[in-house]
Amino acid sequence: MADLTLADLGRLFQALRYCVLVHDAVTKEIIWANPAACDVLGFTLDELKPLKAPDMSSNARQYAREIGVAWLQRAADHGTATIEWSYRSKASEDILTEAVAIRVDLASGPVVMVQFRDIAEEKATRMDLSRTEGRLQTFLRNLDEGIVVLDDDARVLFASESAGSLLRVDAGRLAGDDFTRFCDRESATRLREVLDTTPRGGAPRDGRYRLRATNGEERWLSVRCQYIDIEGDLRGCLLLFHDITDQVRAEEEHRRDAQHLNHLARFNAMGDMAMAIAHEVSQPIAAAHNFVAGVRGRLAGNGVDAASLDWGLDNATAQIDRAAQIMASLRRYVVGLEQSEQLADLNEIVADCAHLIDVRAQQNAVALEWESAVEPLVVRCEKVLIGQVVMNLTFNAIDEMARWPAERRVVTIATRRDDAFGEIEVRDRGQGLAAFPHGRIFDGAFTSKRNGNGIGLALSRRIVTRHGGTVHAAENTPQGAVFALRLPLLDEVPPLRR
Q: Which of 154, 219, 252, 297 is 20 to 30 A off residue 445, Cα-Cα?
């Protein structure tokens, strides 16, 4: 193809979509404008030539004539000058532009060629982006959650300011750092495994990691890990994490509290058992002592009857065997205190407690009524702890009834199904709940017993709550109180161990 002619260059120049104005380098008057400039400003070339800066610029102070002239003069003196200028169209619309003035030496003399483009939308977009970025930065700075992006080697590609705050380091210095160095050895190993196995495009993975504190303080982070790829610009594992140290400590304290609760409940159970056993054992031991004393008396007299001696010794032996059986029962019960959670039938738990309850009732001349559910009520629980709750509720009812006339001394123990729950209910005919001010029954602060400390009901409630159940109290009809514990029944029940 032949070289471009002057006419060709003229056509190309006319076809420019970039706006061009040509000013005289000395007078600053407009001597030419391309069609694009005429279209944008709404003037013809002939209309543009006589115009001065005030005629075609915004009235704002930063676009005053002297400022525009000084800008063109800088281009004339130094070859080029750039400015943000607001032109005003023939329709009196302000047009914000980025304008570049360039000195061009023509054969007829120097001129200043101004090239400009409308940047109003672009500037508005930039301002919107700037505001959005500012808001995001503010949000990120004030987030309780830290944000980092890690590469395949667990090195930080991006870190928010909140991440730096949580890690106790300057966020700007995290780039390129090995994130796992902030974790203890076990947590670092688990985190690397998660990073290596987190699928691209898969669901996020959650975990807990312990921080390796330089000052000896132990801290914990809850971390959500997900692989991201933002237009190929930021690719890696996104970690969102927040400090859960207080939560972990609370959980540990709860575990210690639960252990203490179990310990206390077991000691209470052993105490109740010991009191009952002491009463039970005293009777056969006293009877055996009497039989032995009778045998000794016969030996000291005349005309010893061997048959009567054998009878006395046999009965003494029987009473001693009965005491041994009672002690063996106590041993089995104490061993049972160490059993962990298992499947149990609430009917059987009540049956296991029946002997001790009966002893307490006989001591106080209280009659017992038993109402058992026909079907098994299978729950998952620590049998001895729930048994302790049953005895606590029942002993309270018996002690309450001991204060009333003999004809009212009745306590009812019932088991039943209530929808998805198994329920054990203890009913008495005493004064009801009037002894508990403002309904504060289970808080451990009040008791109707002279020598009581109120811890029984509070402890019982905590035991049942830990098993996912509830304990509640209500007035009995026509008089007295009803205490009931409810535990969730199992939907599918495997065979119980006997």
A: 252
Pairing of strands 234-243, 481-488: unpaired
CB burial of residue 32 (10 Å; 0-12, 13-18, 19+): middle
Backbone φ and ψ for 423, nearest 5 degrees, come out as: -130, 140
Distances (CA, A) of 264 to 252, 260, 275, 385, 449: 18, 6, 17, 10, 20
pLDDT of residue 455: 47
DSSP state of 321: H
DSSP string, 147-205: EEEE-TTSBEEEE-HHHHHHHTS-GGG-TT-BGGGGB-HHHHHHHHHHHHHPPTT---E
pTM of the model: 0.41
Instruction: Give the pLDDT score at 447.
Output: 47
User: Strands 470-475 and 19-24: what pairing?
Assistant: unpaired
Residue 486 CB: number of other CB atoms within 10 A? 22
Written as one letter, the residue type at 219 is R
Residues 6+ apart with CB under 8 A from 303: none
pLDDT for 214 = 58
Instruction: At 290, list the tokens.
Output: 């009497």
Q: What is the spatial distance between Cα 20 and Cα 354, in angstroms, rounded to a whole number? A: 105
Q: Are 354 and 399 in contact (CB under 8 A)?
A: no
Q: Is 457 exposed, middle or buried (0-12, 13-18, 19+ CB in 10 A)?
A: buried
Going from the first residue of the chain to its last (498 residues), give the mean pLDDT of each consecutive group of 10, the final group possibly shorter.
Answer: 73 83 94 92 93 88 92 95 94 93 93 92 80 67 79 89 85 89 90 86 87 75 88 82 89 79 65 60 71 74 70 76 67 54 90 84 92 93 84 91 90 94 94 72 54 60 87 90 94 59
Q: CA 403 to CA 405: how far, in whole Å?
A: 7
Burial 41-63 (b: 16+ CB within 10 A, else e): bbbeeeebeeeebeebbbeeeeb
**CB of 164 closer than 8 Å to CB of 170:** yes
Within 8 A by CB and 6+ apart from 417, the residues are 373, 375, 377, 423, 489
Collect all residues with Cβ–Cβ distance below 8 Å to 418 and sequence separation of at least 6: 486
Strand partners, 220: 210
Beta-sheet pairing, 234-243 with 219-230: antiparallel
- How far is it between the farthest Cα atoms of the chain? 166
β 94-106/109-118 pair status: antiparallel
Structure tokens at 253: 């304290």
Three-state SS letters, 455-475:
HHHHHHHHHHHHCCCEEEEEE
Cβ contact 182:166 at 8 Å:
no
Which of 433, 434, 446 is closest to 473 using CA atoms? Answer: 433
Q: Which contiguous run of DSSP H or E holds residue 413?
A: strand 410-418
The reported pLDDT for the residue numbered 452 is 42
